[in-house]
Design brief:
With 476 residues, the protein is an alpha/beta fold. It is built from 17 helices and 17 strands. The longest helix is centred in the C-terminal third of the chain and has 20 residues.
């Protein structure tokens, strides 16, 4: 009990956590939603020790150890910790290093793991290991480091690729520097892409990301790209003029106008056959394509945005997005966003696997943690059941990583990454926002601790930014 309390105090004082093991935790009389697809199991007791679920069962049958911290879970719902599978945490001068903002926002929203799809490698490597060691508060991180992009990258935290040789060299270099996987961006040339894909396979690295502009989605899927983000290449692949689109300019309007249901069926069947994961980042697709239509001037979350995001990065990104948008009027873009929801359901029904990702915090007003709950809501709006939506952020990430034996559901022996909810998310997916407590690697944070975490973010966001640093573009 005493050590548990000490951990909470350390958190309140400075966003680091005590490395001492927390006390045993017993959540009693709770409804467990294990995310396997089974209905909620009522009146369960879950025992957590040393970061693991060491026991669970009917409350009448499972006895809490005498020294356990007891949490009454009656009327509440316990789900696995959530993953955001598409984030950027430290993104050159767009998102300067700020562990007092981005990491606690994830945790306070029940996000216990993130797949970082492009960030400054030196910082995220340190975060990855400090979080794993329990000395920094944050979600577990699986990281890409710099993203492979064209010779002149569009974003910070990028590695330029001009040709096949450079594609291989960058992959080898990133492997040596300790990345977990390879992230592809839109401007990688064809030869660079296929060389990087081949080298990644040789090096035993998963490669994921955009389908580059010059590559077909079918080719990326057949080359073994494990996940496709933002449906890149998908609507071009459904177009009657795909050959023309991979050579020249693309637009949403053309995608809408030349959409061919038969080509769509064939592409969806291929994605299902190859089990190419889709991370549509629906929340940012809406945010991006309808950026001039969604009024964010009264966004209550703005208090959590540091000056670098709200005064510099987001306005700059909005301007950049708008300059390419004059060819597609708003109704066409609204139609496209609707087609993305329909594509989600069609692929899902065909057996294509899905992951929840948001593109926070690069996406304008896409706040760490909060946005993941919006993404789950959009999956339901697309036609998934609340359970199926929940799975995109729990059991599916574990399947994607090949770590299902260790995480992804609520079961004995698994990592104790858990979220305790005040209401049933299977009745209404919005109930994933009603967070009573978070268990992060076995550490228990009650509502008061989570609120202190959020207050800490608000205080940190009111500070001036640390001096801007040069964008981290890796030279080959
Ligand atoms: Zn991204």
């Amino acid at each position: 009990m005493r050590r548990f309390f000490a951990a909470c105090m350390a958190l309140a004082s400075g966003f680091t956590v005590a490395s001492a093991a927390a006390a045993t935790l017993a959540i009693t009389h709770v409804n467990v939603i294990d995310a396997t697809g089974s209905p909620p199991q009522p009146d369960m007791t879950v025992i957590v020790q040393d970061g693991r679920i060491v026991d669970l069962g009917k409350s009448a049958a499972v006895r809490a150890p005498a020294d356990a911290v007891l949490v009454d879970g009656a009327g509440k719902y316990l789900i696995p910790g959530l993953w955001d599978m598409h984030v950027h945490t430290v993104f050159g001068d767009w998102l300067p290093r700020n562990e007092k903002i981005v990491l606690p926002l994830f945790v306070a929203n029940g996000i216990t793991g993130v797949r970082d799809m492009g960030s400054d490698l030196d910082v995220t490597k340190v975060w990855r290991s400090e979080i794993a060691a329990g000395t920094l508060l944050g979600p577990r991180m699986v990281i890409a480091g710099p993203m492979l992009d064209g010779p002149i990258p569009r974003f910070p935290s990028s590695a330029p690729v001009a040709d096949a040789a450079q594609g291989r060299a960058v992959v080898d270099d990133l492997k040596a520097r300790g990345v977990d996987f390879i992230k592809i961006q839109s401007l990688v040339p064809r030869d660079g892409y296929f060389a990087a894909a081949d080298e990644a396979k040789k090096q035993g690295l998963v490669f994921v990301g955009h389908v580059p502009d010059a590559v077909r989605a079918s080719e990326a899927s057949n080359a073994g790209q494990k996940s496709i983000e933002h449906f890149t290449g998908i609507f071009e692949g459904c177009s009657t003029i795909e050959d023309q689109l991979i050579k020249g300019p693309k637009s949403l309007g053309v995608n809408v106008k030349t959409f061919d249901p038969a080509r769509a069926r064939a592409l969806i069947a291929l994605m299902a056959k190859n089990q190419t994961w889709q991370v549509p980042t629906l929340v940012w697709e809406r945010g991006q394509w309808l950026v001039d239509d969604i009024d964010k001037s009264h966004d209550p979350l703005i208090k959590y945005a540091p000056p670098a995001w709200k005064d510099r990065t987001w306005p700059m990104f909005v301007k950049d997005i708008m300059k390419d948008m004059d060819t597609d009027p708003l109704p066409v873009r609204k139609r496209f966003v609707q087609m993305e929801l329909q594509m989600t359901l069609a692929m899902f029904r065909a057996g294509v696997p899905f992951l929840a990702g948001t593109d926070t915090a690069a996406g304008v007003h896409v706040f760490p943690g909060f946005s993941l709950h919006e993404e789950l809501g959009l999956f339901v709006r697309a036609g998934l059941t609340p359970m199926q939506a929940l799975q995109t952020a729990t059991i599916n990430p574990a399947k994607f990583f090949g770590t299902l034996a260790d995480e992804g559901t609520v079961a004995r022996g698994k990592r104790a990454d858990l979220v305790l909810l005040d209401a049933n998310p299977l009745d209404d997916i919005a109930n994933t926002k009603r967070i009573r407590a978070v268990v992060l690697a076995g550490r228990y944070f009650d509502r008061a601790a989570l609120d202190r975490m959020l207050q800490g973010v608000e205080v940190a966001a009111a500070q001036p930014d640390p001096p801007a640093r040069a964008a981290t573009t890796m030279s080959p």
